[in-house]
Every structure is written in structure tokens, then in C-alpha cells.
Design a protein that fits this description.
Helix content is 22%, strand content 28%. It is of the alpha+beta class. Pfam families: TUDOR (PF00567).
Length: 242
């Protein structure tokens, strides 16, 4: 009974009848809340419907800041939309689709095809040595005898690059430059088994919130959690892939 009474008190504290004169004044304003639905998205498990995890992921990614909304149609009483997280100041930080993010983290699925937006920025291709020129090189990764990777020994830039990457990315908080929805071909910075950061490129989506990357300065591939990726700052595009 006490609970019912306190509930009633809360209602009384927060609700008021509107006087007729005020009602007339307010009638010229359209309702401010618009009911929306993320277009073409269905629960990951159709028999169980939308999970609490899906709602939590949606809340975490849209947050309380403004997001860009794209109306894509209308369905009975709902506006069908996609939401996009606004970019930061890095030119590599393309706004990402909230729908694509929810599909990537496996709380939702598309029930019709989706087209991806603009292509991500790429690294400069490696510089090939001139024919017949002798150079000192280190074999840094071997897949087999007809597929292996080298780095040129006299390349001090690669040492400087590594030092700068560690200084920059170890100083960042966990959420800073976080990658929400990695795109195939996207340049990024990825943590390796040695806990150091390296330049990488996303080459696959194996599922389970994992991504496959290729470390562009060494040639090896790795499957990682998306939490081990960070957006790449513009300055780290200056050097070609090593």
C-alpha cells in the first residue's frame, strides 16, 4: 500500500492539468518525440526477439550526444532510419552506421542487403627496390617459399614509426579512437600478442566480434577482438607500408 501511495505521489508531483488558455497556445506546436525504427534490422535470434544486450549496445553507441539521422522511409507509425555517429577530427574517422555496428556485434541482422558507403583510406603501397641492386634485408614473415615478407635493414623510419605508435596509443584511454564497426580494407592500429601497437589493415570478419587484420609493416595476419583495434591518426599514413 505504501508503494502504491508513493507512486501516486510521484504522479501528482509530475503531472498537471493544462488550463484551456495554455492548451490553445500549445496546440500550434507539433509533438516533439518521433517514433523511429532502424530500417531493415531484425533481432539476431528471431525466436527470442530483441535482447537486453541489443538495447544496451544501442544505448552505449548512441550515448547522449547528437547523432546524424538518415530517414530511409516510413512504416505505419514509425519513421525508418539509420543513425550515424558523428566523426571526430581525424580524416580517417568516417561516420559509421549504427545499424552496421549492431550487426557487427551480433545483436541484430539485416533482412535485406545493405550497401556500404565510401571506401576507407588506404596506406601508400610499399616501395620496391630497383632491379639488380644489392640491399640488406630481414625476412620478417614467412607463409611459404613463394610468399614471404622482407624489411630493408637501413630503414630507420620503421624504428621511429614503432616508437611513435607506442607513445601515442599507450597514452590513450580505452575509449579514445575506439573502432566500433570495422570495414574490410580499413586502415587501423592493432595490438599484437606482444602488447605493442602496429599499423594494420582489416581483411576479414570471422564473427564473434572478431576481426582479421594484416600487419602492413610485417606481412603477418592475426584474428583479434575488435577491442584491440584503434582508429589510425593521420600522421601514421605518411610512411608507405613497410
Amino acid at each position: 500500500e505504501g508503494t502504491a501511495e508513493s507512486l501516486l505521489n510521484n504522479v501528482n508531483d509530475n503531472l498537471r492539468k493544462v488550463e484551456e488558455a495554455v492548451n490553445v497556445e500549445l496546440s500550434c506546436f507539433a509533438p516533439q518525440a518521433v517514433r523511429c525504427s532502424l530500417k531493415d534490422l531484425v533481432p539476431y535470434n528471431l525466436t527470442e526477439g530483441w535482447s537486453e544486450e541489443a538495447k544496451a549496445e544501442f544505448c552505449s553507441v548512441v550515448g547522449s550526444a547528437a547523432v546524424e539521422m538518415r530517414p530511409l522511409g516510413q512504416d505505419r507509425d514509425s519513421l525508418l532510419v539509420d543513425l550515424r555517429k558523428a566523426p571526430m577530427e581525424q580524416s580517417t574517422d568516417v561516420p559509421f552506421s549504427v545499424r552496421e555496428y549492431l550487426v557487427f556485434v551480433e545483436v541484430a541482422r539485416f533482412y535485406s542487403p545493405v550497401t556500404l558507403g565510401r571506401r576507407p583510406l588506404m596506406y601508400y603501397p610499399p616501395v620496391y627496390p630497383e632491379a639488380s641492386k644489392e640491399l640488406d634485408a630481414v625476412v620478417c614473415h614467412i607463409n611459404n617459399l613463394s610468399d614471404f615478407y622482407i624489411q630493408l635493414v637501413d630503414n630507420m623510419e620503421s624504428l621511429l614509426l614503432s616508437a611513435k605508435l607506442q607513445d601515442c596509443y599507450n597514452a590513450l584511454s580505452e575509449d579514445k579512437l575506439r573502432v566500433y564497426c570495422p570495414v574490410i580494407g580499413q586502415a587501423c592500429v592493432a595490438r599484437f600478442e606482444d602488447e605493442l601497437w602496429y599499423r594494420a589493415e582489416v581483411i576479414g570478419h570471422p564473427g564473434g566480434r572478431k576481426v582479421e587484420v594484416r600487419y602492413v609493416d610485417f606481412g603477418n595476419k592475426q584474428i583479434l577482438s575488435v577491442s584491440d583495434l584503434r582508429k589510425i591518426k593521420d600522421e601514421f599514413f605518411a610512411l608507405p607500408a613497410m
